[in-house]
Amino acid sequence: MRRYRFGRIAALIALGYLVSVAVLGAFALTTDRGDLLWGVVTRESDMGWFFGPDRDTFTVSWGLALVLILIGALQAWALWQVLRGRARGELTHRGRKVGLLRLALYLGVGCGLLGIVSTPLVFALEIYWLWSVTGIVSGFVQLAVVWLFFLVLRDIVSRRLRLFSLVVGSIACVSGIGQEIAGVFDMSFVAQILALARGYGYVWLAWFVSILIAQARDPRWSAATVRIGVIAQMAFILQPNGVVSFGDNGSLDILTVYTLLGAAGVFGLVWNARTAHELANPLPGSVPRQAPARSAARWWPLAAAAVALPLIPAAVNLAYGMYHWIGPRGAIEEFVRRYGGNGHALTWLALDVFVGVGGPALLILVAVLRRTRPLVRFTTRALTVAAAVGLVSALTATPRSGESGDFFYEGAQIYPEEMFTPGKDGEIFFGISPLWYSVALLGSALLLVLLYPAAPAPRVRRRVLPAVLATLVVLGFVPAADQARGLVTAAEDCGPRETWTGEPEEPDLTRDQRFVCSFRQGNLVKFAATAPDAVILGYAHWLCGIYTRNDPQEVARLQTTEGLERDDLTYPLAEICPSAGTVAKAAAAEQRREEQEWEDDAQRMCDATPRHRPLIEPAKVVRMKEPQWTDYGVVETYEPTEDGGDPHDDGLLEGAQGTGLVASTPGHLMIFTHPDFDLCVTLETYTHRPPVETKGWDHVVEVGYESPTGEIVLRDDMSGTEFPDLSLNGRAGHYRIRVHYDWFDWKGVHENGQRLLIMAFSGEGDKRVTYRKRPIR
Q1: Predicted TM-score of the model (pTM)
Q2: Which is higher by pLDDT, 180 or 471?
Q3: Which of 22, 174, 198, 515 shows its CA 20 to 30 Å from the CA of 501?
């Protein structure tokens, strides 16, 4: 109690409530005034629903009294959790966003407590509008919580998870607020549409689950808070949603159960309060979160069998035209359909169809591919639970006959009418027995357990010493090793070998040998040429352990003793170290993403550039669809001349660098651009001279060019860029080449771009004409 800011006050209030519940429990067992205990714990003042009209008092059984006292104890614990406040000590400053989130969470708790405390007053004064007002205010508070969580978790979880929680949380809150407002104005149709938008509460459940995932990854919240949140959502799932049909007999027992579940549903308030409390607690020591270990891949036929087993009964069922796993059979399905409400009934139907068409095979496939222990454990348990549900449904199912007319079933009407068509024998066929599904699902679960067993349980301390001593005694009788050096992959074994054909041949190396070669060639660690592969591999695995654990002390010691930085180990160890491989793959994926983003932005940039409209009709127009780039800012064409001169020795590059955009000699044409920005290129060939255009261009220059072969193909051999042929139908001779260049700004990744328009037409003369000089930037 001393550990918390209001611990003593909260303890007194919780203890007082618990004592009052215990006293009322004893009073209920000795008198006929069980209504007092019932009203205090369940907050239900109307006894007529449960124990008949015109009845204000009743006698409770010891069993019901015990359940009510236990629920009261749970409520007292919830009061303690809510009212105790944060841990003692100076308030940890976490920024304005965290403070606003704590305030919103506390307001949510206040709205919940107000709704609980005001229930008797609402019934007494018949001010039912107060619930609507509280619901609207609570909806806006929850909307604020959704947005503040999105901001507070910015550096903790991925952006996708945060965006998902923001979208589904906003939808749930806005729909809930709209429902309350529609209820105030008696717009039932609008309220039903908004209820569908909320998914009968499952959209809010999706938000809550995403926040629990984030809390599990955030050291600010304890594991107990996460577990309480999980229990809160399990209680939500157990509660009915939508419309509940009780049939003709009233089904008061199930209504009583649901009322008791509602009274025990205090975990949501506790989760809100603890989440706000712990946001102000001192931060725990940073513990690096390790990725879940993956089990080794096993013999693939068994894994394939585990995936295929659920598909066998599904295929048989589909052959009969049935796609349901259970259908309207068994006690579990009947309970959910009759007493679970429309929302749970639709959820059951979706699960029924998912299993019926072989959906579990997808879950098993993901578990087989990922092989992480939490995923395998979850999959195994889910398959086992589904197998148990199918077994219970098969054992409690009764044959359905259609001889008496149309088949009728109580509860939510979720099945199509054609499903109840009787067969030749008068019996309605709902598909193969769920037992076949149970056998298949259980078989898949057993195969997963066999393929990926759980790690051995931690050893008990008192057993460690005897085990160590026994091991040492046994080792004392083991003969010494022969000190064999083992396989040595030398540097000359790593390179290609010369063959009698003169072509190099890649060496046939194992996976370990390939790693040894790459590790030696990387020179991260110097090994002797005669060092065995086992030594290098053992050292690499030791480094992998340090890399994976990422313990600050180990990393610092590695830097001090070995002179190695942890980040320098990522790529050398990627082939044999899963954690380093994951980082390397993520970095490669990020690089590919950035490269693709760069290419996409360049494409958008060129697509957005204005298309040139020729003033006269050209003989040929090519607008290059994709952006082009050069290695060093030059595209040029080489054509052989009669003197057989080497174009690299004609001095055109050196002489033309000072003049700018374009230069030429017979058989050698060169155009200059910026090497660091993409080009948007258009080429036009004319039969005669086109009008001069300078508007919209920064630099326009025209030169003469003699084409000896009639093939004017500009290219950059270093980058692989090549433009289409500029010549007029392959005609050799004299041309005039007019180059238009524009440098423009772009609101994107590139920030700037280049536009190039090249015109070629027949014409004499080698004179260089500059129609527009390059502006001084």
Answers
A1: 0.49
A2: 180
A3: 515
